[in-house]
Amino acid sequence: MAANHRSEASSSGGGRGESVVSDCGRRRSSCGYCKSPNGFSSVSHGLIAQSLTVDDYQDLLDRGWRRSGSFLYKPDMSTTCCPSYTIRLKAADFSPSKEQNRVRKQMERFLDGTLDTKAKPELLEDLNTSKVACECECHGRSSLATVETSVDVEEDKNEPEQFMHYLSDAIDKAVQACIERETFSANLQLPKASVKGVSPTKKKKLVKGLENLSYTSNIAFQLAATLRRAQSGKKDEKGSEFSGISAEDQLPSELTPRRIGEKLARSLSQMDETSGFLVQACNGHLNFYSIAEHASADKTGEEKSLSKESSTRNGNKRRCMVRCCKCCSGRRRKLEILLKRSTFEREEFELYRRYQLKVHKDNPAQVTESAYKRFLVDTPLVFVPSTNDGSVPPCGFGSFHQSYVIDGRLVAVGVVDILPKCLSSKYLFWDPDFAFLSLGKYSALQEISWVKENQVHCASLQYYYLGYYIHSCSKMRYKAAYRPSELLCPRRYQWVPFNVAKPRLDESKYVVLSDYKDQDEKPLLPPVSDHISEHQHEESEHKDLNDCFVGDEMFDPDEEDSDVVSESESSNVELPETEDREIGNALIGLQGSPLRYKDLQGALGPAERILEGQVQRYVRVVGRELSERMVYSLG
Fold first, then answer.
1. 31 and 44 in contact (C-beta within 8 Å)?
2. Boundaries of each N-end rule aminoacyl transferase C-terminal domain copy (predicted)?
3. What integer pLDDT is reported at residue 513 of this predicted model?
4. Rounded-to-integer distance, Cα 16 and Cα 382, Å
5. What is d(CA 74, CA 83) in angstroms, rounded to the nearest whole number?
6. How crowded is residue 605: how many other Cβ atoms within 10 Å of its Cβ?
7. Contact 225, 262 (CB under 8 A)
8. Among 47, 81, 189, 405, which has the highest number of CB atoms less than 10 A from its own CB?
């Protein structure tokens, strides 16, 4: 019987795994929104998920739950100090405001280099030496190297010598890298690289597709000659075994000019040393092509290489999907948006730490790797790969990190869950140096666009969930600026248009919104963000800032400033009208064997009454249907 129940639970998500949760009960804690002097004024219910299917988490979201790592929590709306209403937006109906359009145009101006920013000069200098992988064709042959570029710097036509010296130094570093990898012998005195410019007259004589060739170097031939002389010395010692063989053939096949050129090009592709050029090996020559001209000529090759570079970024072997922002075409800077499954990456953690310390003034001792992993990396969601049948998007369902990279520099990371009906925004952290780009707002616009784009691959994927909306906290009202949005009724779990809900929330913090659902919608109200100045957002100490568009703040079930609500108080939760009180079919996990609660009745003796109260409380907060699908673990 236990095996049958396990199979039933596993199939509840359409073969997408099994949900196993344990109940933490209700907790009181200090409120990060209103800073209430009354102590533990924030009241919520908590669960810990060992595993959770995307279908079950979607249904939990639609009952007012959210997650922080593997901890699930739901505010007790009728008693908590700051009622938190789940808010969502249908992506296809989204209508950007003037402010949101301004943020998008601001990013476009930054990418094309026309935005007058207050950014530090060294910030822009860092971008100048960052990398973007590209791929090109040479004489009809496939490129043998990805390309390091800095699309922010254009060639200074008045100082070509400076660029030639710069590229020469880059090649010398690549040679040194090859020595360290023992490709070349460290005992030889190897020649220094020399780069020459390609004159306009010579460009006119080049075959089609090479008109953008700007610089070239024959260093590979010089290296091969040096290695050949070294081989010649060995020949004198061993006799004339090499006589009658061509100079190039005297070398091992991997050390011919052609192969040496390819090795140097690959080495350059792994360094931050080229400046505004594509680099390619061709018959032993290292050629540097103008990136601006080549980009438009070989867009397809560039996209292929971007996918290659992004999939290996920081050694991440998990599936990674890349898209270049549409506004990047022809720009001086390139923005890449990389979507990959949730995993720990040192670069992301360092950005998170810097963000928390500079923007939120967190205590450095509390911004640790373990806390970061619990909050933003660990996830109970069971990953669902793409099925290519229109039911799952190409990236799959699960927990993801969406990183924003400008010219190779990580500037922001959005932590999101992609579920059957929505993209749920959980948290966003960004580089404080790029605060002038309003990356919080910009990432929200990108996430909405992502939902629109992926409806083609998954018809059920229609909504963008923005986390919790707290009308009683003025600094949280910005979420309603993404219109037209809906709020979840805390009692009947029906969605109510924000324009209908707002007048009621102006009168009372806690409202059964579905009581007013059928009323005629009133005319659109002014954008909520217009009522709150940027200065107010900057002064907020809360993590839900307008410029750091996040789903929710960190919720730690083990935090010291919290208190477990008594069993008697916990049992007073009002049961939604749409639920019945039947608990017999609740799925109970006892020592690894899931059983229906009704099959346990009469077998537990004195402990049965205690268990019955726990199960009743659990069914109240998750709903009857979910209680019959998810395994309620008793250990």
1. no
2. 347-489
3. 94
4. 7
5. 10
6. 7
7. no
8. 47
- Angle at the Cα of 619 (from 618 to 620), degrees rounded to 5? 90
Helices (H), 112-255: 121-128, 160-180, 200-205, 219-238
Best CA proximity match to 44, nearest among 495, 623, 563: 563
| pLDDT tens digits, one per residue of 173-204 | 888 877 776 667 666 778 888 888 887 766 65
Which strands, in side-by-side order, build the sheet including 85-90? 320-324, 335-341, 398-406, 409-418, 422-430, 463-469, 85-90, 485-488, 495-497
Cα-to-chain-centroid distance, residue 507:
38
Question: How long, in residues, is the chain?
Answer: 635
**For residues 13 and 19, is the Cβ–Cβ distance under 8 A?**
yes
pLDDT of residue 452: 96
Q: What is the CA radius of gyration of the chain?
A: 30
The tokens for 398 are: 């699960």
Tally of helices (H runs) and strands (E runs) in the chain: 19, 23
Distance from C-alpha of 256 to C-alpha of 90, rounded to nearest angstrom: 60
The tokens of 577 are what?
């009208």
Break the chain into its structural domains and give their ranges.
Answer: 86-120+307-548, 136-297
Give the span between the Cα atoms of 472 and 481, in whole angstroms.
16
- The Cα 440–Cα 548 span in angstroms is 4
Q: How far is CA 46 from CA 22, 419, 516, in A?
A: 9, 21, 29
Q: What's residue 453's pLDDT?
A: 94
Residue 166 three-state SS: helix
- What is the Cα–Cα distance from 447 to 397, expressed in whole angstroms? 15
Which DSSP category does 190 fall into? P
* pLDDT value of position 576: 47
Output the CA–CA distances (angstroms, integers) from residue 343 to 219, 398, 557, in the order listed: 41, 12, 22
Beta partners for 340?
320, 401
Please check whether residue 167 is in contact with residue 215, taking contact to mean a CB–CB distance below 8 angstroms.
Answer: yes
What is the Cα–Cα distance from 347 to 338, expressed in whole angstroms? 14
114 Cβ contact list (under 8 Å, min separation 6):
none
Smallest CA-to-CA distance from 542 within 359, 293, 311, 288 is with 359
List b or e across 207-230, with b for residues whose CB sees 16 or more CB atoms inside 10 angstroms. eebbbbbbbbbbbbbbbbebbbee
Distance CA 621, CA 5 (A): 22
pLDDT beneath 50, residues of the chain? 1-12, 131-158, 208, 240-250, 272, 292-319, 521-562, 566-580
Q: Which two tokens stand for residue 195?
A: 């780069």
For the entire predicted model, the pTM comes to 0.66
Q: What pLDDT was estimated at residue 204?
A: 58
Work out whether strand 631-633 and strand 587-590 pair parallel, antiparallel, or are unpaired: parallel
Cis? peptide before 432, omega within 30° of 0: no
Smallest Cα–Cα separation from 34: which of 83, 100, 94?
83
| Mean pLDDT, all residues of the chain | 76
Which pLDDT belongs to residue 43?
Answer: 93
Three-state DSSP state, 500: helix
What are the C-alpha distances in Å from 575 to residues 74, 76, 388, 619? Answer: 14, 12, 40, 9
